[in-house]
């Protein structure tokens, strides 16, 4: 038995009064006890005197095939399978070091991440939830991931192909994006009929659908179509950001999970291409953050995700910065729930991940300080426990 103890803990929804001793056996949490409890003989205790224990973090929006250097998505086309594998390896290790024990990959190439999810072996890496190549229009946003399709019948087949490949979620590109040249982030990419076809087909197969949507028109469209999640949800129009309250209310009422993909390395900032586009549209970071605060106030489910990998300012392992930014828009407990229990539900892992609770997977992160009081402490990763084993410490195995 392994016991991890700290004077503060967050259980996935709220602070645990007085901290906790998390008891771990055979990869599972078997008890969440008071910090001062006497331990049974033979228990290995790891005591963290000034730290906080949390469920392992979940980054709900990553691209493991992207190498964390500007132009990452443009380079995808040129990689052979061995190069893709190498990029995925490095991405997973950076995520794990940052306390991210589950990632939801929302766009790979040639199903490389789906295949990695299914690969056996002893690899120590985060749990993977994956969409495969996102479905996009011809030469639409991220077409270079290989998921172009046009017309109702082709889109139906595109969903079926992903179902056959065993994806966990269908990702669609409902608007243009900031990083694919020639696409328009303020415009839609599909008709209502096409989107409805995708959603009906995916739901019939038991899969959720999440939609990349920067354009407000695309957000309205995917809400009508009944998607389960919206990525970015920037609500861009030709003249800036505009998210009407009725739209937010509809998103909240339909319990659509919104991932605003915040988080950029403060030393580096967004990629030059993104900066230029936002400046041209007169959209500031503050406009986008103000909307995240309005989303929260409207009762929208917000999940933590970073779009990690797509640029130098958004490397793998950047989730902490997304949470720091979010903490400027909403209460800290809601931010942390969005990266643990709520994210787990969004990933379809509600029964196993995202909570300090007996029976759940023993994926934990221990950070110095108290992120509920100061979210920047979420950067201070002290220890990561994955499936009951302390990462990088042979003494902490269970
Ligand atoms: Zn993305």
Q: In a nutshell, what does this entry contain?
A:
The chain has 398 residues and is of the alpha/beta class.
Provide structural commentary.
- The chain is of the alpha/beta class and 398 residues long.
- The chain folds into 2 domains: 2-56 and 354-396, Urease, subunit C, domain 1 (Roll); 57-346, Alpha-Beta Barrel (TIM Barrel), CATH 3.20.20.
- 30% of the residues lie in helices and 22% in strands.
- It is built from 12 helices and 19 strands.
- It has helices spanning 72-75, 81-97, 112-118, 152-165, 192-204, 216-225, 245-253, 272-280, 285-297, 319-327, 332-338, 341-346; strands at residues 2-6, 8-10, 15-16, 20-25, 28-33, 44-47, 51-55, 57-62, 100-105, 127-130, 170-173, 209-215, 229-237, 240-241, 257-259, 301-302, 364-368, 381-386, 389-390.
- Strands 3-2-7-17-18-19 form a 6-stranded mixed sheet, with no helix packed on it. Strands 11, 12, 13, 14, 15 and 16 form a 6-stranded mixed sheet that branches.
- Helix 5 (192-204) crosses helix 6 (216-225).
- Zinc ion (ZN) binds next to loops.
- Residues 61, 63, 106-107, 307 line the site of zinc ion (ZN).
